[in-house]
Amino acid sequence: MRGGEGGGVVKAGAPKASELFIRVTMDPTDEEFMPADSKPPLTPDEVKVLEVWIAAGASETALLSSIKGAPALAAPQGPTVVLAPDWHPRALQIAQLEKTLGLRLVPRSHVPTDGLVLRTASSPGRCDDAALAQLAAVADLIVEAELARTQITDAGLTSIAAFANLRTLDLTRTAVTSAGVGKLVVLQKLQAINLTSTAVDDAGVAPLSSVASLKNVWTFDTKVSPPGPP
Amino acid sequence: MNPSSPDHHLCSDHCGENPTVWDLPHVPLGLKREWLDLETRRHFLGQGVKALGWAGLATLLGRSAPNLLAHAPIPGAPAMLPHYAPKAKRAIYLFMAGSPSQIETWDDKPALADLFDKDLPESVRGGQTLTGMTASQTRFPIAPSLYKFVRQGKAGRFVSELFPYTAKVSDELCVIKSLHTDAINHEPAILQLTTGNMFPGKPSIGSWLSYGLGAMNAELPTFVVMTSKMPHRTNVQALSNRLWSSGFLSPEHAAVALRSGSDPVLYLNNPKGVASDVRRAMIDGVNDLNRQLFERVGDPEINARISQYEMAFRMQTSVPELTDFSNEPQSTWDLYGPKAKEPGTFAYNCLMARRLAERGVRFTQIFLRSWDQHSRLPTNIKLMAEDSDQPTYALVTDLKRRGLLDDTVVIWGGEFGRTVYSQGALTPDNYGRDHHPRCFSMWMAGGGVKPGISYGETDDFSYNIVKNPMHIRDLHATILHLFGLDHNKLSFKFQGLDQKLTGVLPSKVINDLLA
Known about the structure:
Order of helices and strands of chain A: HHHEEHEHEHEHE
Helix content of chain B: 25-40%
CATH topology of the largest domain in chain A: Leucine-rich repeat, LRR (right-handed beta-alpha superhelix)
Number of domains of chain A: 2
Helix content of chain A: 10-25%
Largest sheet of chain A: 6 strands, mixed
Oligomer: heterodimer
Number of helices of chain A: 7
CATH architecture of the largest domain in chain A: Alpha-Beta Horseshoe
Number of helices of chain B: 13
Strand order of the largest sheet of chain A: 1-2-3-4-5-6
CATH topology of chain B: Alkaline Phosphatase, subunit A
């Protein structure tokens, strides 16, 4: 570190005599305070890291884990995983579909690329194959589809097969059958599918084994053979 | 508030030419905020809907207001969206009121067997203030658990022989042995667990979830509470609706208490001879009057009332379907046991909780009382365990096999722990235990909680925490985190504070518990 007009940046072994440490711990209203320009100050843990690092000799090669008293820093936030395109540009379309179809398209979180939940719990009786067919314009936004107890059949699975970013699909107590489930193998991001209380059997769920992302297939109260002992 | 009273100036004389609601005197802050919310929505819609309350707006928008308004941040309005993608969509909280002893249930201390009737070292108690029930005891004799612990499951956890059924789902459980709380008596301790504060008037956990996330199923309440029949009654504390109230949040976030018996929600059914369309017309009339009243005085409680009438009307259809167990297959009764057919039992309530979870109810809290075993603990804790063990196991198992456990978190526990020393006489087969807030055990399962682990440790006497203490504020922060909510951001301005479930003292999400 080159230092500035006032001399060196750190004085190894002496945090309180090091300009770097002084600048980040001084009164934040002082114009010499760093980071400058009202940027957020360092967290107490980050300040502590600087302190123990300087105290331990300000080595440029030492690992934090080797310095006594160093706090464990939270792992830096990785890039946000994009589960679906930002839904905001289609907000009015989404609202219109909700109103027309009597179902909900709920953002999963404040993160605009976390996708939408297709939610039907308020009136599962209103959600049928025809309703699903009208979701084509938002198909890529739907990450979770809660379709338990709805009126959908195998025909509706054709619409669901177009939900390219779908991760979880609940078809509990619907009229879907083994003949339809095979349509879902194109969903290469699907992680969980719930087929509880449906007419599916072993032959019906077999094609799902080609979906590499799939972690959970629930088949309670179906003709699918229970898994053997582990 | 009476708008016509002479000292109430709702006119420009005192507030300039074009007063905003913020300029008006004598108007509570909360009311101003709600008013502003409505004004903002009206402005956004660009329609003259001044005579409509929230219920009217919801109808107009097909309940899509949060989506439609996503571009128009509303000051003070609840987020209605998780801060980050949630792991849990629902919670079922099995509240063991009265507080089961951790020493007989989850905090195994086999070495205590050698210390039977020895005095608890003074250094362990460390000058602690005891309750009036044991403060005058001359001795504090150590009472080891009469119940043994058996290694269970792949994780090899030691589980009390009181819970032969729960033992079968041991690998699903995350057992926390290092919870601690502030209160040493039931009412404040139960309040603190249910609302985050030992003084009445704060919103319950379920109310915060309802406020922060909204409903998944508009036909049923977001927050449901059930109390259970007890297998025996000893030292039973009263439960009151302040444990599930919405406090300063709008009343629609309070729990609906489902009663046992043929009339699960009081006054829900139409009186004899009143047809549904007549009822509908009546509610429309009442709502119209209420909207006119809202137009005049702007009290948000009126909107809450409108929405409660609407909810009650919808529940006339949804509740009979919910409580009709006739379509449950035999496998259900085999799993939950015969008592599940008897309304009001803990077993029945656990089955109901699963049915509520299936239908998208966010938060179900089941109270089971009579765990307060100051005396005759070995006999009475067994009665309680026998009543609740199989249904508890059944609930976890049923949620798991139906694919619901992944996004439903089940929580089990009382309001504090119990003392290692005997309250009253200690004999080889009988003892009691007093209240003990310094450490207690709970478990969680599903909903993004790490299965099969134990967290925290107590000392050799299960008296003080020696590793990973977890205040119940941390439990609250962790529960909210599972729902995608940041406990520091989920707040509501009231009495000059940004009120939070976790209050003003530091609290943290316990990351070690997260899957």
